[in-house]
Amino acid sequence: MARPSLLAIVCNVGSTLFTLTSTNCCSAGLAVGLAFIGPGVGQGIVAGQAVEGIARPEGKIRSTLGLALLLSLAFMEALTIYGLVVALALLFTNPFTPI
């Protein structure tokens, strides 16, 4: 068995040996970080505009505005979850394993 380099983390779970290279770890962190920045900024802008719209005195569309806000926030949060799934795939898959 080859010795792992200094840039690898080796975890022995049961009888399976997992090797996480520094590239996988950095890529996973970058995927999560970028996936959280966009929806976070978007959610802040959308929520601010929705609060301004609800606070208007002629606000007859408060219920539909609240429903549209919740629906759009759910779609933005889905992008964050996709980034988390990509990060987990980067951490727990080995691209060098022969198929």
TrEMBL record:
Start and end residues of each V-ATPase proteolipid subunit C-like domain: 27-89
Membrane topology per record: Multi-pass membrane protein
InterPro entries in the cross-refs: ATP_synth_F0_csu, ATP_synth_F0_csu_sf, ATPase_proteolipid_c-like_dom, F/V-ATP_Csub_sf
Keywords, sorted A to Z: ATP synthesis, Cell membrane, Hydrogen ion transport, Ion transport, Lipid-binding, Membrane, Signal, Transmembrane, Transmembrane helix, Transport
Pfam families in the record: ATP-synt_C (PF00137)
GO MF terms held by the record: lipid binding; proton transmembrane transporter activity
GO cellular component, one term: proton-transporting ATP synthase complex
Main location per the UniProt record: membrane
Biological process annotations from GO: proton motive force-driven ATP synthesis
PANTHER family: ATP SYNTHASE LIPID-BINDING PROTEIN, MITOCHONDRIAL, ATPASE PROTEIN 9
Protein name: V-ATPase proteolipid subunit C-like domain-containing protein
Source organism per UniProt: Sorghum bicolor (Sorghum)
